[in-house]
Structures are given as structure tokens and as C-alpha cells.
């Protein structure tokens, strides 16, 4: 994935109908994960709720892109050493991508995948994540978050110039069993916990790098009410949930602009990674996120995450800031 990030060509990037970018890496990652899940869980019929579909790839202009993705997928499976079968054809790859069309819901088990979360960060050479979760009867019971560019050392405010530049973190959480972090090369497994800060003035917070994804004005007003002194830490993708789960910062604020609908694959893995590390994730009204409603989350105004001690204070500050915003309109 990191090699693809470095070598990405202009022609490898397309624009979707909602104007967000999608790359050969997004499609390739979805095909690989879908293919692996099918292979590892042969006895069950797979239900996968995933971001991408093959629509664009199946039209004429997509032909070249499909060839490129097919090569990437086969190279990846071969380098992993886990593939003894013959190489996948373009049609196999398109079918693996389209496995992700499930509607999810409150019954049975559904895998939830964002093959590349934070595509804009990926294109910039910054943070991105591969996020996979398992829903059981509408609840997230398992979450895995791979963050190939996230430093193993803390990225919290005052440690940003740390000399430890090693990157690549894997977070995983299972309901009732806590959250663990491992380096992507497989060494050093540790159990992680959210920050224990109780004084909001000492807290630092994460938000989107992209101002179009989350209102920076609103989070700055909330931070001011809490007396937060540190400047916001702005990074892309669910890497924010990962960083929060190990206490790099104490708060995550996300307030998309009017009309944006949050998707379950953008939060399912991150949510359990934070809650199993002792944190709380809610919408702006303080309700837990409901992953049982299909491909979209149905929620009020925004998403926030912090530790249990700070949540009541945060909720109050969010309420006040939202009221001020409404009355100023
Ligand atoms: N207009 C938008 N507002 C909010 N989030 C968006 C918007 N467009 C895309 N996203 C999604 O928000 C998430 C990244 O936001 P951030 O990095 O700011 O946390 C990604 O899941 C991204 O999708 P994608 O998975 O396609 O990158
Ligand atoms: Mg996308
Ligand atoms: Mg995403
Ligand atoms: Mg994505």
C-alpha cells in the first residue's frame, strides 16, 4: 500500500459522483480484503458492507484501470505468500469488489470495510487507514484499524518532534477484551488505553485535516469553552480514533457540514477501538452510534469521542456551541 502511495499516477485517481476521490489503491484494497474474507470464512455466506463498487470500472474508460488493479491485487496476494491458487482475473477482481454491496442491518453478521479511509490524506502522502469491523445483530463486536503512516510513538501535541520516526500501526479490538496495538511489521504488541486526563484545560483534541469534512470553527468554539490550550491536531482518517485509543490526545471532534450523511464504514472499527480502550463515542446529542440502520449512520449533528471523565463536560460545551451557532443563523 505504501509503495502504491509513493508511485500513484494521475490516471490512477478518479472522482466519484459526490466529488470525493477514489484510487486504484481503494479498489485494490477492497478486492484483497473481500477475497481474503471469502477464503478464510468459506463455510459462511459473506455479507460485506464496503465503500467502493465496480460501477466506473465496468464502463469502457475503466478497462485500463481494471488491468492495473488486477495486477496490484495479484502482486499483493503473491507477496503475502498466502496465495497458492492461479492469479485472479479482472472479472474475479470486479466480483470481489462487488461483494461489498450488502446493506448491513440489525440481523445476523456483517463485515464493514473502508478499504482506504482518508483517501485525500493518502493522496497527500499523509495519514490514512484500512478499517474493518464486524457487526453482530447490529453491534460492533470486532474492529481492526491499520494505519500505515501513523508513528508508533505518540503524536500528541508536545511529542510531535519525537526522534522515533518509525511508522505503521495496527489497532484491534474485540468486544469485552480491550484494545491492542501492534506495529505493522508484527513486533511489539501492547494493550492501549485512552487518556486519563480529567482537567479539560490539559486536553488536546483531534479533528479532520480537511476543513470540508468537519467544521474547524465549531470545534474551536467547543475547545475554547473547555479551556483547551493546545492547538488542534489535524490528521486524516480513522487514524484519529487509533491515536485517541492510546491517549495521544483526549478528545476527537467531528462536525460535518449540513447535509452530509456519515457512513458506517467510516466509524465502526474506530468506534470499538476507542470504546474497548476505555473511551466513549457518541453523536453530538450524547447518544451512542447506532450501526444497525444499514449503510448510513443516522445521527444528530456530529460525532465526538473522549474518556468517561471528560464526556459530561464535552457534551455541555458541544450543546452550548451548537445552540450559539443556531441562534446566530
Ligand atoms: N464532504 C465530506 N464531509 C465529511 N466527510 C467526508 C466528506 N467526503 C468524504 N468524507 C469521508 O470522511 C472521512 C475522512 O475524513 P477525515 O479524514 O476528515 O476524518 C473519510 O471517510 C472520507 O471518505 P474516504 O473514505 O473516501 O476518504
Ligand atoms: Mg471515499
Ligand atoms: Mg472513509
Ligand atoms: Mg474510503
Secondary-structure topology with pairs:
Elements: H1 2-7, E1 13-15, E2 21-23, H2 24-40, E3 48-50, H3 63-79, H4 90-98, E4 109-117, H5 119-124, E5 129-136, E6 139-151, E7 167-174, E8 178-183, E9 189-192, E10 205-207, H6 216-226, E11 233-234, H7 239-245, E12 251-254, H8 268-275, E13 279-283, E14 303-307, H9 311-327
Parallel strand pairs: 3-4, 10-11, 10-12
Antiparallel strand pairs: 1-2, 4-5, 5-6, 6-7, 7-8, 8-9, 12-14, 13-14
This protein binds adenosine-2'-5'-diphosphate and magnesium ion (MG) (3 copies).
Adenosine-2'-5'-diphosphate is lined by residues 20, 51, 114, 117-119, 121, 208, 210, 212-214, 236-237, 256, 260, 266.
Summarize the model shown.
The strands form 3 sheets. This protein has a 7-stranded mixed sheet with strand order 3-4-5-6-7-8-9. The protein has a 5-stranded mixed sheet with strand order 11-10-12-14-13, sandwiched between helices.
Amino acid at each position: 500500500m505504501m509503495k502504491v502511495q509513493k508511485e500513484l499516477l494521475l490516471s490512477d485517481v478518479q472522482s466519484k459522483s459526490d466529488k470525493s476521490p477514489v484510487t486504484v489503491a481503494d479498489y485494490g484494497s477492497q478486492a484483497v480484503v473481500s477475497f481474503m474474507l471469502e477464503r478464510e470464512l468459506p463455510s459462511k455466506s459473506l455479507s460485506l458492507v464496503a465503500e467502493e463498487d465496480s460501477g466506473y470500472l465496468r464502463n469502457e474508460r475503466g478497462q485500463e484501470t481494471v488491468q492495473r488493479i488486477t495486477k496490484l491485487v495479484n502482486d499483493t496476494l503473491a507477496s503475502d505468500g498466502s496465495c497458492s491458487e492461479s492469479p485472479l482475473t479482472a472479472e474475479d477482481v470486479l466480483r470481489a469488489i462487488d461483494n461489498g454491496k450488502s446493506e448491513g442491518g440489525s440481523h445476523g453478521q456483517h463485515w464493514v470495510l473502508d478499504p482506504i479511509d482518508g483517501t485525500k490524506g493518502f493522496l497527500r502522502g499523509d495519514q490514512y487507514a484500512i478499517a474493518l469491523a464486524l457487526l453482530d445483530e447490529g453491534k460492533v463486536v470486532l474492529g481492526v484499524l491499520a494505519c500505515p503512516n501513523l508513528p508508533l510513538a505518540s503524536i500528541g501535541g508536545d511529542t510531535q518532534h519525537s526522534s522515533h520516526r518509525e511508522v505503521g500501526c495496527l489497532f484491534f479490538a474485540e468486544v469485552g477484551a480491550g484494545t491492542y496495538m501492534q506495529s505493522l511489521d508484527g513486533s511489539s504488541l501492547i494493550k492501549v488505553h485512552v487518556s486519563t486526563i480529567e482537567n479539560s484545560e490539559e486536553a488536546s483534541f483531534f479533528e479532520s485535516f480537511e476543513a470540508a469534512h468537519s467544521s474547524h470553527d465549531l470545534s474551536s468554539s467547543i475547545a475554547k469553552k473547555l479551556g483547551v490550550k493546545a492547538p488542534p491536531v489535524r490528521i486524516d482518517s480513522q487514524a484519529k480514533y487509533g491515536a485517541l485509543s492510546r491517549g495521544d490526545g483526549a478528545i476527537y471532534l467531528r462536525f460535518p457540514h449540513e447535509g452530509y450523511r456519515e457512513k458506517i464504514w467510516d466509524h465502526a472499527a474506530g468506534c470499538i477501538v476507542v470504546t474497548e480502550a476505555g473511551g466513549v463515542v457518541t453523536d453530538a446529542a450524547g447518544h451512542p452510534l447506532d450501526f444497525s440502520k444499514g449503510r448510513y449512520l443516522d445521527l444528530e449533528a456530529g460525532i465526538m469521542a473522549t474518556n468517561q471523565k471528560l464526556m459530561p463536560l464535552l457534551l455541555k460545551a458541544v450543546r452550548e456551541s451548537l445552540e450559539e451557532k443556531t441562534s446566530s443563523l
